[in-house]
Amino acid sequence: MTDNQELTQRWQGSLMNNYGTPRLPLVRGEGLKVWDSEGRQYLDFVGGIATNALGHAHPAIVEAVSKQIASLGHISNFFMAEPTVALAERLLQLFGRDGKVFFCNSGAESVEAAFKIGRLTGRTHMVATEGGFHGRTMGALALTGQPAKKTPFLPLPADVTHVPYGDAQALAAAVTEDTALVVIEPIQGENGVVVPPAGYLKAARAITAAKGALLVLDEVQTGIGRTGHWFEYQAHEGVLPDVVTLAKQLGGGLPLGATVAFGRAAELLQPGQHGTTFGGNPVACAAGLAVLDTIENDGLLENVKRQSEKLRDGIESLGHPLVDHVRGAGLLLGIVLTEPLAPQVQKAAQDAGFLVNAPAPDVVRLMPPLNLGDDEVDALLQALPGILGAAEGDG
Ligand code: PMP
């Protein structure tokens, strides 16, 4: 029996969150490279589902985390620690607005805090989008617009109207004076990298403002430089959200989420009304600071834009019949296929030494680290025709 097979059996025998399908066992990572237990190397364009902002084992994160765990690991929220405060201040500086930050450990938790802030408006109705994804905890799941993920768990704790994504008219019709919040992803990541029409976020801002509802932007997948802006909404003129939810690459591979609230939304949650033991953990926050510093010092927002264009142009100019077009922003890209062969492309890519992901039957998603290099983009572009051809043969 190989190492890989043995680990698969142990994984299936012991883990509840094994998703039911065999997984590739990875033992080591460095930058974009990862190795499996049999020593095979892959280029990781999944990036821990957009969590590895700087790739694997980045020296700045290793150093920040090592220093912090060696001096002060976890303290409870009876006390306070410098990295937690520093990260909150730094985030607010990047938003360029006064506000308050709630730290937690995941994207779903960051949405739960936004949900509670919504309830504190005194209103209960919420509006979210069809196909949207906000996490698997019960409040976040209620806002999620993917019925298959929700059905086994009904009833869910909210009065939520789901409207078609990108349709400002439908949104305007759904938001009333009883609506506490509207939650929107600036790009729907899990739904297959779906980009809304220009002006959608601006319209959502105007609609919510007119009805006194909070605008919550779920930037768990799009935030922290992923799209070439610190936050994707900053690419849209005239949009100032009331609440932004963050996680994924904020911690650079460590579990770290944040709910950032501005204006009246920042005052709704009173001290003691919400909390979590590990929220604001100094080690995770030290990693967060290292991520933000490195993005800034290494000019990674520019790199994201440059490599995004190179990938997009490179993939589209292959002129391969299986590729319709590439959509998304920055390094959150979806290769839209002309046939529903994304799972086959994922498999063929893995066989060729590239890790990609298939969020929809006809969409292959790329979300590599923000410091992706030219050689790595070239390697994928060179391998793609072979990968697409193998997928077609398999389909
Ligand atoms: N919101 C969005 C937009 C996401 O993409 C995700 C995760 N894919 C979540 C929330 C939930 O995050 P987590 O898995 O960390 O709970």
UniProtKB/TrEMBL annotation:
<dbReference type="InterPro" id="IPR050103">
    <property type="entry name" value="Class-III_PLP-dep_AT"/>
</dbReference>
<dbReference type="Pfam" id="PF00202">
    <property type="entry name" value="Aminotran_3"/>
</dbReference>
<keyword id="KW-0028">Amino-acid biosynthesis</keyword>
<feature type="binding site">
    <location>
        <position position="136"/>
    </location>
    <ligand>
        <name>N(2)-acetyl-L-ornithine</name>
    </ligand>
</feature>
<dbReference type="InterPro" id="IPR049704">
    <property type="entry name" value="Aminotrans_3_PPA_site"/>
</dbReference>
<dbReference type="GO" id="GO:0003992">
    <property type="term" value="F:N2-acetyl-L-ornithine:2-oxoglutarate 5-aminotransferase activity"/>
</dbReference>
<dbReference type="InterPro" id="IPR015424">
    <property type="entry name" value="PyrdxlP-dep_Trfase"/>
</dbReference>
<dbReference type="GO" id="GO:0005737">
    <property type="term" value="C:cytoplasm"/>
</dbReference>
<keyword id="KW-0032">Aminotransferase</keyword>
<keyword id="KW-0663">Pyridoxal phosphate</keyword>
<keyword id="KW-0963">Cytoplasm</keyword>
<comment type="pathway">
    <text>Amino-acid biosynthesis; L-arginine biosynthesis; N(2)-acetyl-L-ornithine from L-glutamate: step 4/4.</text>
</comment>
<feature type="binding site">
    <location>
        <position position="277"/>
    </location>
    <ligand>
        <name>pyridoxal 5'-phosphate</name>
    </ligand>
</feature>
<feature type="binding site">
    <location>
        <position position="276"/>
    </location>
    <ligand>
        <name>N(2)-acetyl-L-ornithine</name>
    </ligand>
</feature>
<dbReference type="InterPro" id="IPR005814">
    <property type="entry name" value="Aminotrans_3"/>
</dbReference>
<feature type="binding site">
    <location>
        <position position="133"/>
    </location>
    <ligand>
        <name>pyridoxal 5'-phosphate</name>
    </ligand>
</feature>
<comment type="subunit">
    <text>Homodimer.</text>
</comment>
<dbReference type="InterPro" id="IPR015422">
    <property type="entry name" value="PyrdxlP-dep_Trfase_small"/>
</dbReference>
<protein>
    <recommendedName>
        <fullName>Acetylornithine aminotransferase</fullName>
        <ecNumber>2.6.1.11</ecNumber>
    </recommendedName>
</protein>
<comment type="similarity">
    <text>Belongs to the class-III pyridoxal-phosphate-dependent aminotransferase family. ArgD subfamily.</text>
</comment>
<keyword id="KW-0808">Transferase</keyword>
<dbReference type="GO" id="GO:0030170">
    <property type="term" value="F:pyridoxal phosphate binding"/>
</dbReference>
<dbReference type="InterPro" id="IPR015421">
    <property type="entry name" value="PyrdxlP-dep_Trfase_major"/>
</dbReference>
<feature type="binding site">
    <location>
        <begin position="107"/>
        <end position="108"/>
    </location>
    <ligand>
        <name>pyridoxal 5'-phosphate</name>
    </ligand>
</feature>
<feature type="binding site">
    <location>
        <begin position="218"/>
        <end position="221"/>
    </location>
    <ligand>
        <name>pyridoxal 5'-phosphate</name>
    </ligand>
</feature>
<keyword id="KW-0055">Arginine biosynthesis</keyword>
<dbReference type="GO" id="GO:0042802">
    <property type="term" value="F:identical protein binding"/>
</dbReference>
<dbReference type="GO" id="GO:0006526">
    <property type="term" value="P:L-arginine biosynthetic process"/>
</dbReference>
<dbReference type="InterPro" id="IPR004636">
    <property type="entry name" value="AcOrn/SuccOrn_fam"/>
</dbReference>
<feature type="modified residue" description="N6-(pyridoxal phosphate)lysine">
    <location>
        <position position="248"/>
    </location>
</feature>
